[in-house]
Amino acid sequence: MRYQKLGNTGLFVSELCLGTMTFGGEGGMWGKIGQLQQSEAEQLVGRALDAGINFIDTADVYSEGRAEEIVGQALKNLKIPREKGGCRHQSLWRNGDRWSELARQLALSHYQQREGDVEVMRTIAESKGVSVAQIALAWLLHQKAVTSVIIGAKRVDQLDDNIAATDVRLSEEERKQLDAVSALPREYPGWMLERQGEYRRGQLANQ
Q1: What's the whole-model pTM score?
Q2: Which DSSP helix (H) or strand (E) runs through 151?
Q3: Which of 6, 29, 54, 178 stands the most exposed, by the fewest C-beta atoms within 10 Å?
Q4: Is 142 exposed, middle or buried (0-12, 13-18, 19+ CB in 10 A)?
């Protein structure tokens, strides 16, 4: 597990962040996302900490606040010290929903809406003997703009699979393939500025 500086905070966070949106759901939308209660969630938190994850994503809207309660109780039950001195694990709390690119890629995998993306990831995954999810995560971890990737799980084996992505190394050619299939369409005004730039460069070249 590697650690990155979080902006200008001076804090160093793990390259993977444990998401807790699957914690505490009992009905409605949150129940569909995840229904992990204290003992199950505690196993995931403990496993994440043992793997070196020191960054936990939670919000007061997750399961209407129940997720935060579960995380807090888990840290207490696992006897994780909160004071800075001698603290082995530092939990960073933040509010708000943030969906990672992994969620987009896995959703595409599930619904097969963009089979090309998934097929490229599957081919690379098979060549390395790892899961498609690990390739999606590894690609994210190779992005310079990414400090930490939020992962979510309902079972320990899913979490372990995600954590194993930190050991996956992608070649330059593999990264180019993944960059190509995951590229988003250019949006305004980006495409217009690019077109204007090409026109201007053509004018200068003809002078």
Answers
A1: 0.73
A2: strand 149-151
A3: 29
A4: middle
Angle made by CA atoms 97, 138, 120, in degrees to the nearest 5: 105
| CB 12 within 8 Å of CB 3 | yes
CB count within 10 Å of CB 31 equals: 12
- 66-77 vs 38-50: helix crossing angle, rounded to 10: 60
Dmax over CA atoms of the chain, in Å, equals 74
Residues in the chain: 207
Q: What residue has token string 């929903």?
A: 97
56 in Cβ contact with 17 (< 8 Å): yes
Amino acid at 191: W
Backbone torsions φ then ψ of 66, nearest 5 degrees:
-65, -35
Does 185 sit behind a cis peptide bond, omega within 30 degrees of 0 on the bond before it?
Answer: no
**What domains does the chain contain, in order, with CATH numbers?**
3-98 (3.20.20.100), 108-145+169-207 (no CATH)
Tens of pLDDT along the chain (207 residues) come to: 999 998 888 889 999 999 999 999 888 888 888 888 999 999 999 999 999 999 999 888 899 889 999 999 999 999 887 653 333 344 444 433 444 444 545 555 444 445 667 888 899 999 999 999 999 999 999 988 889 999 989 999 999 999 999 999 999 999 999 988 877 677 777 777 777 777 777 777 777
Q: For residue 150, give both structure tokens.
A: 């939020």
